[in-house]
Amino acid sequence: MDLKEYLSNVENLVDKTLFRFLGDAPGDLNKASAHLLLAGGKRLRPALVMLAAGAIDKKAPDRIFPAALALEMTHTFTLVHDDIMDKDSLRRGVPTVHTIWDEATAILAGDVLYARAFDLICKATAEPAAQVRAVSMLANACAEICQGQSDDMSFEKRDDVSRGEYLEMVRKKTGALYAAAAGIGAILAGASPPQAEALYNLGMTTGIGFQIQDDLIDLLSSRDGSGKDRASDLRAGKQTLIAIVAREKGIDLAPYRKDLTDDEIDAIITELQDAGVIDEVKKIAHDLVVNAKKGLSVIPESEEKRLINEMVDFFVTRGF
Amino acid sequence: MDLKEYLSNVENLVDKTLFRFLGDAPGDLNKASAHLLLAGGKRLRPALVMLAAGAIDKKAPDRIFPAALALEMTHTFTLVHDDIMDKDSLRRGVPTVHTIWDEATAILAGDVLYARAFDLICKATAEPAAQVRAVSMLANACAEICQGQSDDMSFEKRDDVSRGEYLEMVRKKTGALYAAAAGIGAILAGASPPQAEALYNLGMTTGIGFQIQDDLIDLLSSRDGSGKDRASDLRAGKQTLIAIVAREKGIDLAPYRKDLTDDEIDAIITELQDAGVIDEVKKIAHDLVVNAKKGLSVIPESEEKRLINEMVDFFVTRGF
Known about the structure:
The structure is a homodimer.
Chain A: H1 3-22, H2 28-37, H3 44-56, H4 60-63, H5 65-86, E1 90-91, E2 94-95, H6 97-100, H7 103-123, H8 128-155, H9 163-188, H10 193-220, H11 232-236, H12 241-248, H13 262-274, H14 277-294, H15 303-315
Antiparallel strand pairs in A: 1-2
InterPro entries (chains A, B): Isoprenoid_synthase_dom_sf (IPR008949), Polyprenyl_synt (IPR000092), Polyprenyl_synt_CS (IPR033749)
GO molecular function (chains A, B): metal ion binding; prenyltransferase activity
Family (chains A, B): Belongs to the FPP/GGPP synthase family.
């Protein structure tokens, strides 16, 4: 099986299961909780839970599937709350929860998903001691994500964020949950501590790479390519790794914090490419992934391990 | 030891522990998370965790103390989020989190406490299988609290809420967490399923009684008695059990949804007393508590059981 087929299978399974359980839940709060969860998504965190579990024990993915859903619930709860904070009105092509209902309902909808995530870890079939470790790992990831979002918001008021500060923020905001996805899958499948640590670290570094690639996609994608507005980070003056590396090379992107035409955006991209900014940012993501893969030497060879390696490459090369 | 002394000991222990761990945490988000937690509170849910654990195994309270803190974290997270939704500016005599910082920080501060709660359950010393049951119980309580808060807010737009609807809302909004407090204490201490169920049910019914008493205190307390504004529920037109029982007896409180003088409030109280509304509401709370205590026959006699019975009485007789 190739990665594309594997990811598509997980996506279908997650979609089907979520729809079966949440598709016709009664009441405003249940509908608000289910809204973004049922709006699609690539389901990459559940896929990483399943692959990490399968790399430890081929038969584990089926029995720990609720934990894969738990990671998607967690991811979705953070999106619902982030959308309130960032006042975003569109996500995954549908209006955000607080736009359709209101902020109070969106806060509660996120809180309900948060609760369901922890309950789902308990519903996985695994050693109880492993479940406790998984719960603790998920809880710590959630606390880190909150700190990452807080740091990200505070960066909006600054124009001097360093490369180290940015990477630390992304480690928390994006890396922590991918780390937990791989770590929880491994732990519930019965991984030894070094194996669980290796997969946790792989999730962490590739999660960071994933976010860097997201920033590149935001800048480089053509109109309608990513489903988002083009170069939204640039127009919002976000302190992405691109902006930071550009500043290190003497290019100040702050003046572009405004509405930009497609021609202006194209000109900025060309300037950044000519200065080697894009290549350097790509190299940072690439190096993270190379290191992540090296750490997997404690995991025996298997189809799942091969797919994990493919997935890690996909994270920093994907165009959407 | 009498109940007052016991509660005071738990309050001191909780305060001291929270202050030690959170008193000087750096950064805005940590300070915002710790703010309401360190502002005091009666710490009744931790006390119930400890008493329920002690009623099962005298030595258990020490080793499961982190779970007592977990219940206080959970309670506080719901208050921080509720204060945003209800736009309240004061709580426990201090400005609310979203008032000092902003709504985004308050959402995240609540989310951090939410995460810490689940991590603390994992830090209790108990059988792993018991910890998993405790995590699941806490998660389900959290989901119920959200539904209760959602129902409570939806009641604000109605003037025909029935007694059954009100009690179901309170069961979720307040009962569920007291039920989880007693249930989790019992489970982590090694209770048998019937014992855990008895303590869970006791927490549920007395939690409902606690909320009914809260409504009575809001109406009946003299100025500055509860630290809140007097008769705030009446002035806000809240569908409390008092308003519902009054309506059943032909007294419509809706016209009092406005600013009221102390003399007007006194007159309304007299009218409600003369019509037997206050006595009937008190009887509902009293009956809940009598039933709750009956269910404890599966718990062996002990000082802890005696204190639980005292606590349950205190819940529906307290004046603050």
